[in-house]
Amino acid sequence: MRIFYTCKQAHQKLSENLDRELSLAERTQLKIHLSMCRSCTNFGTQMRTIRMAMQEMAKGKSSDRDEP
Ligand SMILES: [Zn+2]
């Protein structure tokens, strides 16, 4: 059994995490990888930022807040 994710696997899990909840084992392995890998940590931060931005845009469409 492979203990650590490769960067490719970590990226895949980070993407999957946007669509579904990862299992405990997946999250644990991802966390271990992120604790050792800065580039995947940055990737994960970007994914979260993009996701939040998309949620904000989705929300913005249904409200009448001041638009530029
Ligand atoms: Zn990595």
From TrEMBL:
Entry-linked InterPro entries: Znf_put
Pfam families, per database record: zf-HC2
Domain named Putative zinc-finger: which ranges?
Answer: 7-40
Protein name as catalogued? Zf-HC2 domain-containing protein
